[in-house]
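REQUEST FORM: STRUCTURE PREDICTION
Request ID: SP-0412
Submitted by: Lab K.M.
Chain count: 1
Length (residues): 515
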Amino acid sequence: MRHLAVAATIVAFFTVASRILGFVRDIVLSGTFGASAEADAFVSSLLIVNSAAAVLLYTLVTVVIPRFQAERTDYGEPSAWRLAWTLAAWVATLLVIFAGFLAVFPQAAASLYRINPELAAASEPLIRIMAPAVLLQGLSALSTALLQIHGRFAGPAAVGVAFNAGIIGGVLIGSDAIGIEAAAWGVTAGALLQLALQMPQFARLMRGVGVTVTLTHPRLTMTALLAAPVFAASLLQQVNNFSDKIFAATLEDGRVAALTWANTLGQAPRALLLLPVLTPLFPLIARLVAEGRRPEVVGAYRRAAGLLGVLGIPVGAFLIVYAQEVSSLLFERGKCDDECVSEIAAPLQFYGLAVWAGFMGFLHNRVLSAVGRTREVMIATIVVVAVTIALDFLLIGPLEQSGLALASAIALFVNVAVTFTFLRREFPALDPAPLALQQLRLVVAALVAVGAVLVADLLLPSEAASGLELAGALILKSVLGALAYGAAVRVIAPEDFAHARATVASALRRRSAPA
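STATUS: Completed
RESULT:
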């Protein structure tokens, strides 16, 4: 557990730094280009690059880590590493082919946005510039999986810092000369920095375990079969992102960018709170499963669910209540005016509603993958995609881009229900009644905190504030809400409060401890 606490602290530090730079990146983009057609073209092209990397990273981490642990338990560590290097060789080969295809035929990827011909045409040159980033980010994802197998989290956690720094640098250096293409070159530069950042740790790992260059392994086919549904599920998850952007492309110019920036804010809790907790926990769950210690897996799930509820529910409530103020504080500058801010804030409220569901769905998917139930993950994802697209059709008319965000939120709650059903089949000891009561207590505590901040709004209104005045008001009300929530949780859900406090205290104690 000491190593887990240290790893969580490392991941948290770099994740926070990456998220801060991600905000700075979007602030720079919105201030430089505003909610405009060229901003739509960039975020649409970037989505293609990031989706390819996200699919690969999720598949590799979700499949390779459990398979490595199982292979090491059953056949020894040398065989496990041969399997890892075989997978690496195949992935690298396919990445070269795919990146080359994007560079030569960017119109194939841009055709995803053919519902808006102007957007598709503007995306083509940006996709060509970003094509090398697909290869570089893919190799970075491969390196991440191999490093996490060996308990190395610092390099993988820091890659987001490098990637965002590259984009920011590209915009600041070249936007006056070459416009939006400067941001595209920044994407490729950031992806190169990502890979370079991991190379020192990766080189030491290769020296320590040895490298076997081969394309065959006795369990390669079985691993590929396990990876196929995970890959398909991750690909389907990206379909949700694309469907939102494709629908948004039918609205006025700038709505794709506004929806993307709102989604960035809505995803911030996942990066700041969820990933630091679950990234080092997943290899532990995979090891418990490989060793047959299933009751301990159930215990780990219950504790994680309580912790994620303690963290996720109040953060989601904060985004719902203060969507306008948060959007104004972060984005209202340069070419992003009041209208631009309002277009970001409207969907942000619904993304706030989805924070808890996103947390729990991520936990469920990881536990199901750890026990080899990748087929169930794919089935749940198919259901979610179908629900999302159906709701997109229904809600975009009356609510525009806010309807797309609401569709995503509802679909995430559906995902939690479906994946929990599959978890109960695998772990009958998971009784839904105590878990539901646990989360309900936390919701009540969050409502107490919301009441406290609404009272504070009467005394310290912030709707018309801006700059430092707005930042000070939000900080003050956030602290008040956090104190009210902490007091309510301590009374209403003392067990979850004690566990969350112990986890935070452990992370803080380990921050300065030697690894």
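NOTES: The radius of gyration is 22 Å.
Reviewed by: T.R.
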